[in-house]
Task: inverse folding
């Protein structure tokens, strides 16, 4: 009987035995088995599925504590079963372990005061630890009665059965244990028993580099212990051989910029290896299994036509898992109207989760299939639903409305029908699988069809195990169970088991040797894995009873790594450079540092190269090109061009552009449009000339524009009756207006949200409504405090102003330029003069409206008015043009002011425009001259359209993606 560490090693050993036999000669092969399979066989049991184990454990715990909540149980049941398994696999005494645990917890609860109340949470917590031994005994008894076991229990039963057979002097087969690494206490005892009966030989694969007594390398930690424990000669450890320090080899550290690049680089390294040595045995080792798909996509088929994948694709790495995850996100992030504990009864879903789900590639593929069917009602169905959500600004969508938008299609019903229990979840999954498989029936969709089949088997398994009426799982608990099954499910790949190129995990490399090793993710917290205490038992319990800790797992990983390198002549170790996006840590693995500072010093035949892959090298065609030649011997990541170095986006004013600009000017130029041109002429072009539309998005709450509109409309409603009746607002009217303010704000808010799902009385809209009410109320109250503010005679509100100015062009032509604008309010002062007022909901200071600085002349202020692209100049230009528009209409305004609702103490702040009438200049004539200069600048072919240099202006620009900002 030959026992090896893995099933992969079984295949390789059988192949080596067949190759060792002479041609035409039969060889009587010994029985070969992997250690885990052999222990289960010796125990004479069958390993139970994790879900069934958890349900059995819950049943046992409910007998002890009838008040145990299933959702809470789900959170720690997996860890408890894992601890039971570790306890049995390492032959710890259950009585001593649980007695120690109970005493340790007794010390925790020791107090000088009274004991906690019997019904308290604290008492229940400590009672749980006191009952653990009872739970363990009942679970083990139930397992043995049905000839089932969890993994660790099968190891304890196997050792007990072998010990009984030896005590009865039964003859056992001769055993040979080959290439084992870290052993559990059960495996140690099994080997000791068989060696004592002279029925076993043990051979480890080791190297003197890490096996020497004084070696600080932890790879030999356990092997040195086994040499003493089993009293083995060093020959059983391979000598130990001097392979790591004696064989010449080339080791390359290959730094890459990000995790996804590793797959491409691994393919290039593999292609280079096949070109230089076509018969070499190569292993691509993945400590991080999530990189399997990037690696498979990166393998060049022309250079590597045959390879074998031993590890299988984790279901959680498939696109279908992402679809299932999005489905649960939809149902778990909606507005609960049922019990918050269960997660059921959620008839309203958030639009972001819904849109993300409907845009998933699997559903898009189904839509593509649906578009080919004869029933035209459902053509473009998913796109129509997404567009309707945006059009309605539907933040929270009722399930019934979604089904209505989907015209009752069964896909929409399966995705969004309200879940009332886990039977509904299972039914939704079945329907989803049946619909999607119709879109993946062609021969080019084999892998997607396999995803769907695996998902069907998982759902079927849960359907057969759960009784939703009895267990009453919450949505989160059901998801936890489903995800645990998905985590343990692998999509198998078919291939030649002993192909020259193997793609495998680090554990599968045990007892195997290769000529060329390519290991990915050689970073700390990946290789080795991070220090995690994944146990309910405290750390001191693990050390006291010699249960494995993370330190043991690190030592085992070290042995697997160094043993794999022993006979390899070419080693490529890929690592992610510091600062890379998405990495858990940027540090190189400690194993790379040990090679650099320890092994390289002791092995004169080792050639060490430290390389960094550039983005150009990763993107290049690898066939026939050495990767070493396309890398840099540096630790710096590939440089990237910053946005500041990007070429400027410039649009020349050709004939077509000038015609388009003239068209804008003649149709209507507003103060906002003029300010936009001066601030960023490219933004002006995108919005007013090219008329690029911004992407429609669902607005969950009022934006700044909407908030300003609400305040403006509320004030217009409050002052409307006084304007219509031409009555002044007096001090006696203010208390009544203050009382009406919240009502008018609420009315304006409802009008602003009309046709949308975002309700005015909930969420951020409710907060904004309260803020708007406070601003309006404080403004009205401030009128009582300001001198000469009352009585207030309002001539017009939100008045549309328009005039045409004939601007002379260099050609002699006079261009009719239409100026348009809306004045928030026009007041009639007590002396009969007019004042144009503009409301601002933001903060404005009086000095913002002063373009004429101390010590400067009027010409300087005029120049600022024409050229400055600052918020202060924008406000003065706006008031100037409003005053000009009124004057052109025969109503000259004596003043133009801003009322800042966040600076009410300043009152109406007038813009100083005295520089426009200096030297007895006429306001209207001077304004026309200045407008002519601005219009001629807009039409100047020598001044191209270009983006602003002020990056702060780009922060909220909808077009910043076009000009690389």
Result:
């Amino acid at each position: 009987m030959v026992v090896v560490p893995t099933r992969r090693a079984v295949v390789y050993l059988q192949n080596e035995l067949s190759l060792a036999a002479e041609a035409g000669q039969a060889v009587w092969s010994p029985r070969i088995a992997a250690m885990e399979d052999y222990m289960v066989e010796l125990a004479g049991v069958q390993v139970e599925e994790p879900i069934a184990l958890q349900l059995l454990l819950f049943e046992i715990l409910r007998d002890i504590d009838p008040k145990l909540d299933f959702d809470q149980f789900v959170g720690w049941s997996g860890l408890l079963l894992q601890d039971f398994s570790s306890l049995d696999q390492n032959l710890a005494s259950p009585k001593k372990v649980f007695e120690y645990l109970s005493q340790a917890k007794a010390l925790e609860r020791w107090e000088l005061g009274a004991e906690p109340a019997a019904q308290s949470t604290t008492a229940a917590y400590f009672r749980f630890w006191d009952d653990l031994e009872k739970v363990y005994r009942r679970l083990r008894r139930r397992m043995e009665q049905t000839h089932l076991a969890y993994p660790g229990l099968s190891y304890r039963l196997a050792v007990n059965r072998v010990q009984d057979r030896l005590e009865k002097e039964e003859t056992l087969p001769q055993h040979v244990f080959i290439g084992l690494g870290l052993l559990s206490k059960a495996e140690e005892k099994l080997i000791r028993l068989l060696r004592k009966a002279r029925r076993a030989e043990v051979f480890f694969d080791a190297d003197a580099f890490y096996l020497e007594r004084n070696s600080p390398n932890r790879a030999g930690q356990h092997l040195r212990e086994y040499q003493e424990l089993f009293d083995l000669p060093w020959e059983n450890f391979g000598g130990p051989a001097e392979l790591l320090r004696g064989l010449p080899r080339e080791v390359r550290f290959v730094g890459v910029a990000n995790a996804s690049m590793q797959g491409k680089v691994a393919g290039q390294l593999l292609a280079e290896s096949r070109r230089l040595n076509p018969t070499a045995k190569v292993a691509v080792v993945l400590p991080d299994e999530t990189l399997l798909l990037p690696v498979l996509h990166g393998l060049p088929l022309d250079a590597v036509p045959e390879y074998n994948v031993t590890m299988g694709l984790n279901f959680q790495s498939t696109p279908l898992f992402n679809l299932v995850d999005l489905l649960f996100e939809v149902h778990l992030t909606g507005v609960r109207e049922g019990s918050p504990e269960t997660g059921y009864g959620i008839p309203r879903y958030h639009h972001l989760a819904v849109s993300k789900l409907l845009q998933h590639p699997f559903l898009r593929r189904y839509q593509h299939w649906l578009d080919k069917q004869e029933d035209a009602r459902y053509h473009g169905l998913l796109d129509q639903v997404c567009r309707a959500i945006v059009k309605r600004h539907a933040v929270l969508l009722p399930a019934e409305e979604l089904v209505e938008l989907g015209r009752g299609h069964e896909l929409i019903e399966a995705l969004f029908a309200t879940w009332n229990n886990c039977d509904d979840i299972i039914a939704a999954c079945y329907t989803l699988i049946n619909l999607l498989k119709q879109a993946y029936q062609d021969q080019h969709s084999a892998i997607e069809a396999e995803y769907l089949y695996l998902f069907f088997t998982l759902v079927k398994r849960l359907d057969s195990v759960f009784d939703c009426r009895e267990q009453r799982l919450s949505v989160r608990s059901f998801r936890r169970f489903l995800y645990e099954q998905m985590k343990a499910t692998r999509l198998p790949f078919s291939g030649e088991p002993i192909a020259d190129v193997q793609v495998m995990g680090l554990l599968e490399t045990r007892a195997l040797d290769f000529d060329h090793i390519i290991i990915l993710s050689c970073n700390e917290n990946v290789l080795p894995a991070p220090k995690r205490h994944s146990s309910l038992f405290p750390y001191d319990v693990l050390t006291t009873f010699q249960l494995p800790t993370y330190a043991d797992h690190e030592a085992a990983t070290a042995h697997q790594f160094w043993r794999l390198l022993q006979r390899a002549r070419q080693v490529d170790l890929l690592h992610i450079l510091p600062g890379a996006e998405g990495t858990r840590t940027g540090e190189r693995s400690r194993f790379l540092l040990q090679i650099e500072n320890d092994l390289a010093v002791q092995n004169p035949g080792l050639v060490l190269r430290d390389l960094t892959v550039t983005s150009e090298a990763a993107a290049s065609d690898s066939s026939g090109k050495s990767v070493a030649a396309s890398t840099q011997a540096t630790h710096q990541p590939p440089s990237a061009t910053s946005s500041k170095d990007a070429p400027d986006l410039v649009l020349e004013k050709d004939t077509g552009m000038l015609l388009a600009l003239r068209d804008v000017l003649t149709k209507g130029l507003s103060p906002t449009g003029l300010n936009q041109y001066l601030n960023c002429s490219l933004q002006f072009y995108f919005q007013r000339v090219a008329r690029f539309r911004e992407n429609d998005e669902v607005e969950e709450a009022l934006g700044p524009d909407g908030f300003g509109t609400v305040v403006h409309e509320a004030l217009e409603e409050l002052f409307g009756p006084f304007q219509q009746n031409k009555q002044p607002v007096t001090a006696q009217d203010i208390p009544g207006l203050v009382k009406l303010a919240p009502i008018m704000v609420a009315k304006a808010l409802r009008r602003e949200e009309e046709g949308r799902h975002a309700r005015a009385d909930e969420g951020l809209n409710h907060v904004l409504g309260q803020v708007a009410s406070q601003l309006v109320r404080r403004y009205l109250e401030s009128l009582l405090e300001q001198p000469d503010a009352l009585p207030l005679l309002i001539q017009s509100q939100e008045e549309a102003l328009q005039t045409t100015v004939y601007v002379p062009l260099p050609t002699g032509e006079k261009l009719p330029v239409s100026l348009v604008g809306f004045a928030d309010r026009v007041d009639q002062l007590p002396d009969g003069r007019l004042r144009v007022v503009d409301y601002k909901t933001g903060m404005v200071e009086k000095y913002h409206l002063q373009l004429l600085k101390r010590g400067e002349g009027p010409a300087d202020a005029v120049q600022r008015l024409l050229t400055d692209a600052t918020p202060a100049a924008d406000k003065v230009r706006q008031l100037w043009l409003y005053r000009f528009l009124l004057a052109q209409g025969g109503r000259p305004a004596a003043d133009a002011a801003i009322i800042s609702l966040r600076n009410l103490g300043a009152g109406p702040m007038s813009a100083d425009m005295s520089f426009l009438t200096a030297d007895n200049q006429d306001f209207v004539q001077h304004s026309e001259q200045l407008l002519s200069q601005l219009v001629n600048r807009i039409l100047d072919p020598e001044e191209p359209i270009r983006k602003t240099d002020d990056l702060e202006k780009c922060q909220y620009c909808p077009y910043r993606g076009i000009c690389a900002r």
